[in-house]
Automatic annotation (TrEMBL):
Top-rank lineage group of the source organism: Bacteria
Family annotation (Pfam families): Sel1 (PF08238)
Name of the protein: Peptidase C39-like domain-containing protein
UniProt entry keywords in alphabetical sequence: TPR repeat
TPR repeat segments: 169-202
Source species: Prosthecobacter fluviatilis
Length: 410
């Protein structure tokens, strides 16, 4: 339905577009799908968006196939069907860089197909060659951490540079981190400054932001944290615990966050290998009870602690956080995001807390869902809002709390 608030010229243009689409114009059909999806000049309508996208896909549009595949992969508009999503991406990948990226995501995260990290990297590199910056950054991070493929610093650097050439904020974050670790501070600052200007940023962001916006904010956070990361912690005032970041695969935040935690304690395990220690299949969520059992299988001792989701519980929880961080130990936490943009109305995410700045009431996260080094800032109020979960596993018994894994020193 065309919005009545729009001008007559806009309405005329949309009517022309609708007529062209109805007559079989594939480009017009895809344009309408995008407009209905985004609510651009028309009332947002996911049913109409999928209807026009299906028509364009059936006519052979690679971009429309990717559109439909993405809907089936996410499951927010139609019933989630990874196998069907994979089929659409595969049909479109030779013509669409975005579909090639998504096909790589499916191979990497076992979505609709058996996991094949080498094939994922092949498709990401093909997409990168065709100008897809996020694909270049994703491949770079896999090679950088050795997650799913053999670690290769040279390939990681080249792909990070390609992502930076394409002005991808995640690639610029990673390339800046490579410079930072090499002691090339000005080069790091230059890359992070570039990334921070690609999208609007604030004093801090929050982990539920879309990826490119999150990467731009992350770059701004890294600029703020440059001096903190190079100085010793001051218990009660400031703490930062460096962690060996791994960029997660599709729907593998729990195992990846735990692998980061395990690597900090001396293990060499990756996120996918940690997941294989759990009974749930690759590409599906992981029960925290299974994560806890997996820690024992690699010879580490963790403890699950929980706090109530009220103000009193938050005071106790953050006191625990600061105590652990002051002792040089990170903490794994589980977040819950609520909103209509999530299938089922909510989503969970597991990540690490690796520092705090007391004067500014800020905490430092190491998030497997964002670009390496995974570091981002979060305000105390946002930590209070997001650090809560009632679905982290059978251990939760459906009760909302603030769950955390800590190193068990008993």
């Amino acid at each position: 339905m065309i919005q009545s608030l729009h001008s007559a010229d806009v309405q005329t243009t949309l009517k022309t577009l609708l007529n062209a689409a109805a007559a079989g114009d594939v480009k017009a059909q895809l344009d309408l799908a995008l407009r209905f999806r985004d609510g651009s000049g028309v009332l947002k309508d996911d049913v109409h968006a999928m209807s026009w996208a299906h028509r364009a896909a059936d006519a052979g549009s690679a971009e429309a196939m990717d559109f439909v595949g993405a809907a089936y992969l996410r499951g927010a508009v139609v019933k989630r069907n990874p196998a069907l999503a994979f089929a659409y991406f595969k049909a479109a990948a030779d013509e669409s860089a975005q579909a090639a990226f998504n096909l790589g995501q499916c191979y990497y995260g076992a979505q609709g197909t058996a996991q094949d990290c080498e094939k994922a990297l092949e498709w990401w590199k093909k997409a990168a060659e065709r100008g897809h910056g996020r694909a270049a950054a994703s491949a770079a991070m896999a090679y950088h951490s050795g997650e799913g493929v053999k670690q290769d610093a040279l390939k990681a650097r080249r792909l990070a540079e390609r992502a930076a050439e394409l002005n991808n904020p995640a690639g610029l974050v990673l390339l800046g981190e490579m410079h930072f670790q090499a002691g090339e501070i000005e080069a790091a600052k230059e890359n992070w400054t570039r990334a921070s200007k690609l999208h609007p940023t604030g004093a801090t962001g929050h982990p539920s932001q879309p990826s490119d916006i999150s990467s731009a904010q992350q770059a701004a956070d890294l600029l703020k944290l440059m001096d903190y990361r190079r100085r010793k912690s001051e218990p009660g005032k400031f703490a930062f615990v460096p962690l060996p970041h791994i960029h997660q695969g599709y729907n593998n935040c729990g195992s990846t966050a735990c692998a980061i935690f395990a690597r900090f304690q001396g293990s060499e395990i990756g996120g996918w290998d940690f997941k294989r220690l759990c009974p749930s299949p690759l590409g599906t969520g992981t029960d925290w009870g299974h994560l806890l059992e997996a820690s024992k299988k690699i010879g580490q001792q963790w403890a699950l602690v929980t706090f109530t989701p009220d103000d009193r519980g938050f005071a106790h929880a953050t006191a625990m956080l600061k105590s652990e961080l002051d002792a040089g130990r990170p903490v794994v936490v589980d977040f819950k995001y609520v909103g209509p943009q999530y299938p089922g109305g909510s989503a969970g995410h597991t990540l690490n807390v690796c520092g705090y700045i007391a004067d500014e009431n800020l905490y430092i996260l190491c998030n497997p869902a964002v670009a390496t080094p995974g570091i981002q800032l979060i305000t105390s109020s946002d930590l209070d809002k997001f650090w809560r979960s009632d679905h982290y596993g059978k251990l939760s018994k459906g009760v909302l709390s603030r769950p955390a894994f800590v190193i068990d020193n008993r």
